[in-house]
Every structure is written in C-alpha cells, then in structure tokens.
Amino acid sequence: xxxxxxxxxxxxxxxxxxxxxxxxxxxxxxxxxxxxxxxxxxxxxxxxxxxxxxxxxxxxxxxxxxxxxxxxxxxxxxxxxxxxxxxxxxxxxxxxxxxxxxxxxxxxxxxxxxxxxxxxxxxxxxxxxxxxxxxxxxxxxxxxxxxxxxxxxxxxxxxxxxxxxxxxxxxxxxxxxxxxxxxxxxxxxxxxxxxxxxxxxxxxxxxxxxxx
Length: 212
Prior knowledge:
The structure is a single chain. This protein is an alpha/beta fold. It has helices at 21-34, 41-45, 52-63, 69-76, 80-85, 94-103, 116-126, 149-158, 172-180; strands spanning 8-11, 107-111, 134-136, 165-169, 184-188, 202-204. A six-stranded parallel β-sheet has the order 3-2-1-4-5-6. It starts with 7 loop residues before the first strand and ends in an 8-residue tail after the last strand. The model has no long low-confidence stretch (mean pLDDT 94). Its cofactor is Mg(2+).
C-alpha cells in the first residue's frame, strides 16, 4: 500500500530514469568476452543493478576466464564511457513528474549503485542535478543493493521515515533493497532492458501523466 502521507520519492537511475542499461551491458559484454567469458544474454541481464564484486567473479570462474575482478573493474571503469559519451535522455515524463512532486513539497532523492563520478557526469549532461534534494551513489555506502543501505542513507539525509516514502526501481535487486529498507516499491518497466518486476508492489510502464 502506498504511504497515506507521502513525504519522499526515491528513484533509481539506470534503467529507471535514464535508459543506460543497454549501453552498459553492451560495454560489459565486450569486456567479459575479451577476458574469455562469452556470457549469455540471460547471464548478462542478471548483472544489471547488482554489485559487480559479487556478481562477476562467479561468471569469471564459470568460464575459466583470464584475469581477476580487479582487471574487470579496471577495464569497465564504472562504465564511465556510457555516462560521458552515450546519447542519454531522461525517460519521457520523468522530469515533469519529479518537478511536480517537489512543487507539492514531496522530497526527491536519486539512489544508485553507480559511482559518483559516473552518475554526476550523466546528471550534469542531462541538466538534472537540481531535480533532487539528495543523491546517494554506490561509493557512499559500505553495502550496495540488494542491501538496504543506499535507501536507508537517503532516508536519513532527507529526515523521512520509510513508511512515508516510495521507491521507483527497474530491477529485482533494487526492489529487494527498497523492501529491505521498509519502503513501498514501484517497478518501472519502460526502459529497453526488460527485468523481472514481479516482486514490486506495483508496476508502471510510463511516467507520462503518472501521479504519485
């Protein structure tokens, strides 16, 4: 059930507000293939939204790949090329939705596993830094999603209780983190990489005309 008194909406970024996942997964596929891990589409999709240091080592071991997780992360560089160079745009209706929330006095936060260097580069290019009261990135917490730490940190910074907040996510990993933090989770199904949103409390496919 949605909060009876909505005080904050916390958004994921990749695949939720901006369709970066396809760019990121293509980059990751190339890196893994070069390391000797010809991952399947299903294996690649499972990496979306997760912590690479948890999800990638089993793949490297499964394929007997050359190199380590440190080698992989060095090549991936947080997928910085996506955030700095790809043709990015906010999802249709997203900017209007966030602006509408703030005009009603509802706080907004961006809560991402992506590191600050990448996320802030993208937000600057999108002219979207001023849309959020709080930004929490993957390098601001000890444990990333599916742990609740990123959302708990954002709620703490906003001074809002979990029962008064909504989370919008595009992945089962993010939804698990939202639920672990005690928040109602809305799954967003509008981006190009389709993920299992069955664990969400509700699912939306567009922000155009959406009211929260």
